[in-house]
Specification:
The protein is mainly beta. It is built from three helices and 15 strands. The protein starts with a helix and ends with a strand. The N terminus and C terminus are likely disordered. InterPro entries: Fuse-rel_SoxYZ (IPR030831), Ig-like_fold (IPR013783), Ig_E-set (IPR014756), SoxY (IPR032711), SoxY_sf (IPR038162), SoxZ_dom (IPR014880).
């Protein structure tokens, strides 16, 4: 439990990364672009409309923090795709956002398998696409050994923790959602048997307050083990509900009352 609190504190307290790692020319992206975003030219870069922060050199390639932000007057976003060009499955996650998250300030941790551009392509309410990204020096994130043994994985999988603090800007709160799940990529080995571990990861996530969507995620193998999501949002006084599905057919649901922090041990 103490580890989870530490991880959440790191996300909340970490300063913005030095942004000297601009996107680099990427032959991989040139091949992927049209199939991922449906156009043959890059959407414009506009750091006010959307910015992506990531470390120039990752401390741990299996848990690379990526922060997505907008300026205060930026047009709202409806959808966003995160892409790690050099990963075996480049599309890391696809998000939909509710109005309560605008302007966006959202953080997630990704696996990065090789030196690569990490980019976000977002769709604004009027259908216009914009892009942001950084070049990250990291290697081996998708095949890095799992942090826990298989017995621990089975015992804790699906546990959740939610924390909300009224420390955001303009009356917003900062929410932190932590989910216990190994998010096995299919490229890792069991450290006891030395056999490959089959891919097994969260592929659907939906977070609401009352009936209102905060965000939803459709994910692949690139979201980190025990994922943590940190975001600013406009609270509406309703409980926060979380719905999680994984590729093995497991489903977890939890409702967190407005003034309580609980752990789900389904």
């Amino acid at each position: 439990m103490k580890l989870w609190l530490t991880l959440g504190a790191v996300l909340l307290a970490a300063p913005a990364f030095a942004q000297d790692n601009a996107l680099q020319p990427s032959p991989i992206w040139e091949d992927l672009r049209s199939s991922i975003i449906g156009v043959d030219v890059d959407p414009p870069l506009d750091a006010v409309a959307l910015d992506l922060e990531a470390p120039p050199r990752a401390h741990d390639a299996a848990i690379v923090p990526v922060r997505l932000t907008q300026g205060a007057e930026a047009p709202p976003l409806e959808a966003l795709t995160l892409v790690v060009d050099g990963n075996p499955a480049p599309v890391a996650a696809e998000y939909a956002f509710g109005p309560a998250l605008m302007p966006l300030d959202f953080e997630v941790r990704l696996r990065v398998d090789s030196y690569s551009d990490v980019r976000a392509i977002a769709t604004q309410a009027d259908g216009t696409q914009i892009m942001a990204g950084r070049f990250v020096k990291a290697a081996g994130g998708c095949s890095a050994p799992a942090g826990k043994d298989m017995a621990s994985v089975r015992a804790s999988m699906g546990e959740m923790r939610w924390r909300s603090a009224a420390d955001g800007q303009d009356g917003r709160a900062t929410g932190t959602l932590m989910i216990r799940h190994p998010n096995f990529s299919g490229l890792q080995r069991d450290q006891v048997t030395l056999l490959n571990i089959p891919a097994h990861f969260i592929d659907r996530l939906e977070v609401r307050q009352g009936e209102d969507l905060l965000f939803s995620m459709s994910a692949g193998i690139s979201v980190s083990e025990d994922p943590v999501f940190r975001f600013q949002y406009h609270p509406n006084g309703q409980p926060v509900s979380v719905h999680v599905e994984d590729t093995d057919g497991n489903v977890w649901d939890e409702i967190f009352p407005v003034e309580r922090v609980e752990v789900n041990k389904s």
